[in-house]
Amino acid sequence: MARAALKPSAKRRLPPRRRDAKATRERLLVTALGEFASKGFNGARTAAIARLAGCNIRMIYHYFGSKEALYLAALERVYEELRRREGELDLLHLDPAAGMAALVEFTFDYMNAHPEFIQMVGVENIQRGRFLKRSKKIPTDVAPLVGAIDDVLRRGRRDGMFRRGVDPVQLYISILSLSYVHVSNRYTLSTLFSQDMGDEDWLAARRRHVCQVILDYLRP
User: Fold this and answer.
1) Which of 212, 205, 209, 175 is nearest to 97 (CA)?
2) Per-residue pLDDT for the chain (220 aa), expressed as one digit of tens each?
3) What is the pLDDT of residue 180?
4) What are the residue ranges spanned by the domains of the chain?
5) Which CATH number fits domain 77-218: 3.40.50.720, 3.40.50.1240, 1.10.357.10, 3.30.450.20?
6) CA separation (Å) from 27 to 20, 52, 123?
7) 3-state secondary structure string, the chain?
8) How many CA atoms lie within 13 Å of 204's alpha carbon, on the beta-carbon side?
9) CATH class of the domain defined by 20-65
10) Distance in angstroms (rounded) separating the CA atoms of residues 151 and 90
Protein backbone atom coordinates (compact mmCIF):
# COMPACT_ATOMS: atom_id res chain seq x y z
CA MET A 1 0.00 0.00 0.00
CA ALA A 2 1.31 3.42 -0.92
CA ARG A 3 2.02 5.75 1.94
CA ALA A 4 -0.27 8.71 2.27
CA ALA A 5 1.42 12.03 1.64
CA LEU A 6 1.92 14.10 4.73
CA LYS A 7 -0.37 17.06 5.03
CA PRO A 8 1.33 20.44 5.22
CA SER A 9 0.23 20.78 8.83
CA ALA A 10 1.87 17.48 9.66
CA LYS A 11 5.26 18.38 8.21
CA ARG A 12 8.03 19.16 10.67
CA ARG A 13 8.09 22.84 11.43
CA LEU A 14 11.47 24.49 11.95
CA PRO A 15 11.76 26.92 14.82
CA PRO A 16 11.96 30.55 13.71
CA ARG A 17 15.54 31.72 13.14
CA ARG A 18 16.64 34.03 15.94
CA ARG A 19 18.39 37.24 15.07
CA ASP A 20 21.97 37.47 16.35
CA ALA A 21 21.79 40.99 17.77
CA LYS A 22 25.48 41.18 18.63
CA ALA A 23 26.57 40.08 15.14
CA THR A 24 24.14 42.48 13.47
CA ARG A 25 25.35 45.41 15.53
CA GLU A 26 28.99 44.53 14.82
CA ARG A 27 28.32 44.20 11.10
CA LEU A 28 26.69 47.63 11.05
CA LEU A 29 29.57 49.14 12.99
CA VAL A 30 32.28 47.68 10.75
CA THR A 31 30.41 48.75 7.63
CA ALA A 32 29.85 52.24 9.02
CA LEU A 33 33.53 52.56 9.85
CA GLY A 34 34.44 51.88 6.24
CA GLU A 35 31.85 54.35 4.93
CA PHE A 36 32.74 57.15 7.33
CA ALA A 37 36.47 56.64 6.76
CA SER A 38 36.14 56.83 2.98
CA LYS A 39 33.33 59.38 2.61
CA GLY A 40 33.44 61.45 5.77
CA PHE A 41 30.62 62.15 8.19
CA ASN A 42 28.59 64.25 5.79
CA GLY A 43 29.18 62.03 2.76
CA ALA A 44 28.27 58.71 4.39
CA ARG A 45 24.61 57.69 4.16
CA THR A 46 22.80 55.50 6.65
CA ALA A 47 20.81 53.89 3.83
CA ALA A 48 24.03 52.82 2.12
CA ILE A 49 25.48 51.53 5.39
CA ALA A 50 22.38 49.44 6.07
CA ARG A 51 22.35 48.08 2.51
CA LEU A 52 26.05 47.14 2.56
CA ALA A 53 25.61 45.50 5.96
CA GLY A 54 22.63 43.51 4.69
CA CYS A 55 20.32 45.06 7.26
CA ASN A 56 17.16 47.09 7.37
CA ILE A 57 17.92 50.77 7.95
CA ARG A 58 15.74 50.61 11.08
CA MET A 59 18.43 48.43 12.67
CA ILE A 60 20.82 51.40 12.70
CA TYR A 61 18.41 53.43 14.79
CA HIS A 62 17.52 50.40 16.92
CA TYR A 63 21.13 49.67 17.89
CA PHE A 64 22.69 53.14 17.76
CA GLY A 65 19.87 55.68 17.89
CA SER A 66 21.18 58.08 15.23
CA LYS A 67 23.75 58.63 12.51
CA GLU A 68 25.76 60.77 14.94
CA ALA A 69 25.84 57.99 17.55
CA LEU A 70 26.86 55.46 14.91
CA TYR A 71 29.72 57.69 13.78
CA LEU A 72 30.87 58.21 17.38
CA ALA A 73 30.83 54.42 17.94
CA ALA A 74 33.00 53.97 14.83
CA LEU A 75 35.39 56.70 16.00
CA GLU A 76 35.64 55.10 19.43
CA ARG A 77 36.29 51.72 17.83
CA VAL A 78 39.43 52.84 15.98
CA TYR A 79 40.86 54.49 19.09
CA GLU A 80 39.96 51.56 21.35
CA GLU A 81 41.70 49.11 19.03
CA LEU A 82 44.87 51.22 18.95
CA ARG A 83 44.91 51.60 22.74
CA ARG A 84 44.30 47.86 23.21
CA ARG A 85 47.20 46.93 20.96
CA GLU A 86 49.48 49.48 22.65
CA GLY A 87 48.62 47.93 26.01
CA GLU A 88 49.80 44.54 24.74
CA LEU A 89 53.32 45.95 24.41
CA ASP A 90 53.58 45.79 28.23
CA LEU A 91 56.02 48.72 28.34
CA LEU A 92 56.18 48.66 32.13
CA HIS A 93 58.09 45.39 32.05
CA LEU A 94 60.51 46.13 29.21
CA ASP A 95 64.02 47.53 29.38
CA PRO A 96 63.74 51.32 28.74
CA ALA A 97 65.56 51.32 25.40
CA ALA A 98 63.79 48.15 24.24
CA GLY A 99 60.45 49.52 25.41
CA MET A 100 60.87 52.79 23.56
CA ALA A 101 61.98 51.01 20.39
CA ALA A 102 59.00 48.67 20.67
CA LEU A 103 56.59 51.62 20.96
CA VAL A 104 58.11 53.41 17.96
CA GLU A 105 58.13 50.29 15.77
CA PHE A 106 54.61 49.33 16.81
CA THR A 107 53.24 52.82 16.09
CA PHE A 108 54.94 52.91 12.70
CA ASP A 109 53.64 49.47 11.73
CA TYR A 110 50.14 50.14 13.04
CA MET A 111 49.72 53.36 11.09
CA ASN A 112 50.89 51.63 7.93
CA ALA A 113 48.55 48.67 8.43
CA HIS A 114 45.46 50.62 9.53
CA PRO A 115 44.70 53.45 7.12
CA GLU A 116 41.15 53.52 8.50
CA PHE A 117 42.54 55.01 11.73
CA ILE A 118 44.26 57.81 9.83
CA GLN A 119 41.17 58.39 7.71
CA MET A 120 38.85 58.58 10.72
CA VAL A 121 41.18 60.97 12.52
CA GLY A 122 41.20 63.13 9.40
CA VAL A 123 37.41 63.07 9.22
CA GLU A 124 37.14 64.05 12.88
CA ASN A 125 39.59 66.91 12.41
CA ILE A 126 37.35 68.23 9.62
CA GLN A 127 34.60 68.13 12.25
CA ARG A 128 36.95 70.09 14.56
CA GLY A 129 36.81 67.28 17.10
CA ARG A 130 33.15 67.89 17.96
CA PHE A 131 32.30 64.20 18.25
CA LEU A 132 35.52 63.36 20.08
CA LYS A 133 34.50 65.88 22.73
CA ARG A 134 31.31 63.91 23.33
CA SER A 135 33.16 60.64 23.95
CA LYS A 136 33.57 59.50 27.53
CA LYS A 137 36.02 56.77 26.50
CA ILE A 138 38.63 58.16 24.14
CA PRO A 139 40.14 60.97 26.27
CA THR A 140 40.47 58.74 29.34
CA ASP A 141 41.82 55.71 27.46
CA VAL A 142 45.05 57.52 26.59
CA ALA A 143 46.05 58.04 30.24
CA PRO A 144 47.59 54.53 30.71
CA LEU A 145 49.75 55.02 27.62
CA VAL A 146 51.06 58.38 28.84
CA GLY A 147 51.74 56.82 32.24
CA ALA A 148 53.63 53.92 30.66
CA ILE A 149 55.77 56.25 28.53
CA ASP A 150 56.51 58.37 31.60
CA ASP A 151 57.59 55.24 33.47
CA VAL A 152 59.91 54.18 30.63
CA LEU A 153 61.45 57.66 30.57
CA ARG A 154 61.92 57.67 34.35
CA ARG A 155 63.65 54.30 34.36
CA GLY A 156 65.77 55.36 31.40
CA ARG A 157 66.93 58.49 33.25
CA ARG A 158 67.68 56.45 36.34
CA ASP A 159 69.86 54.07 34.34
CA GLY A 160 71.63 56.89 32.51
CA MET A 161 70.13 55.85 29.15
CA PHE A 162 67.79 58.81 28.59
CA ARG A 163 68.22 62.52 29.11
CA ARG A 164 66.16 64.63 31.44
CA GLY A 165 63.39 67.03 30.53
CA VAL A 166 61.45 64.86 28.06
CA ASP A 167 57.69 65.34 28.21
CA PRO A 168 55.82 62.06 27.56
CA VAL A 169 52.98 63.70 25.61
CA GLN A 170 55.37 65.70 23.42
CA LEU A 171 57.36 62.54 22.78
CA TYR A 172 54.33 60.46 21.81
CA ILE A 173 53.07 63.14 19.44
CA SER A 174 56.51 63.16 17.79
CA ILE A 175 56.45 59.37 17.44
CA LEU A 176 52.94 59.51 16.01
CA SER A 177 53.82 62.30 13.59
CA LEU A 178 56.91 60.52 12.27
CA SER A 179 54.88 57.34 11.79
CA TYR A 180 51.87 59.06 10.26
CA VAL A 181 52.62 61.70 7.65
CA HIS A 182 53.99 59.41 4.94
CA VAL A 183 50.72 57.42 5.15
CA SER A 184 48.27 60.31 5.37
CA ASN A 185 50.12 62.22 2.60
CA ARG A 186 51.29 59.21 0.62
CA TYR A 187 50.13 60.31 -2.81
CA THR A 188 51.25 63.91 -2.66
CA LEU A 189 54.64 63.02 -1.15
CA SER A 190 55.13 60.20 -3.65
CA THR A 191 54.51 62.62 -6.50
CA LEU A 192 56.69 65.40 -5.08
CA PHE A 193 59.70 63.17 -4.43
CA SER A 194 59.19 60.65 -7.25
CA GLN A 195 59.24 57.84 -4.68
CA ASP A 196 56.40 55.48 -3.85
CA MET A 197 55.86 55.96 -0.12
CA GLY A 198 54.11 52.60 -0.04
CA ASP A 199 57.12 50.68 -1.37
CA GLU A 200 58.22 47.96 1.07
CA ASP A 201 61.93 48.78 0.89
CA TRP A 202 61.28 52.49 1.36
CA LEU A 203 59.01 51.77 4.34
CA ALA A 204 61.66 49.54 5.95
CA ALA A 205 64.23 52.33 5.61
CA ARG A 206 61.74 54.87 6.94
CA ARG A 207 61.00 52.62 9.93
CA ARG A 208 64.70 52.40 10.83
CA HIS A 209 65.05 56.15 10.39
CA VAL A 210 62.12 56.98 12.69
CA CYS A 211 63.38 54.63 15.40
CA GLN A 212 66.88 56.11 15.21
CA VAL A 213 65.58 59.69 15.35
CA ILE A 214 63.59 59.01 18.53
CA LEU A 215 66.28 56.99 20.32
CA ASP A 216 69.02 59.50 19.40
CA TYR A 217 66.84 62.31 20.73
CA LEU A 218 66.46 60.51 24.06
CA ARG A 219 70.19 59.91 24.63
CA PRO A 220 71.84 62.05 27.33
Assistant:
1) 212
2) 444 444 444 445 544 445 688 999 999 999 999 999 999 999 999 999 999 999 999 999 999 999 999 999 999 999 999 999 999 999 999 999 999 999 999 999 999 999 999 999 999 999 999 999 999 999 899 999 999 999 999 999 999 999 999 999 999 999 999 999 999 999 999 999 999 999 999 999 999 999 999 999 999 9
3) 95
4) 20-65, 77-218
5) 1.10.357.10
6) 11, 9, 21
7) CCCCCCCHHHCCCCCCCCCCHHHHHHHHHHHHHHHHHHHHHHHCCHHHHHHHHCCCHHHHHHHCCCHHHHHHHHHHHHHHHHHHHHHCCCHHHCCHHHHHHHHHHHHHHHHHHCHHHHHHHHHHHHCCCCCHHHCCCHHHHCHHHHHHHHHHHHHHHHCCCCCCCCCHHHHHHHHHHHHHHHHHCHHHHHHHHCCCCCCHHHHHHHHHHHHHHHHHHHCC
8) 3
9) mainly alpha
10) 12
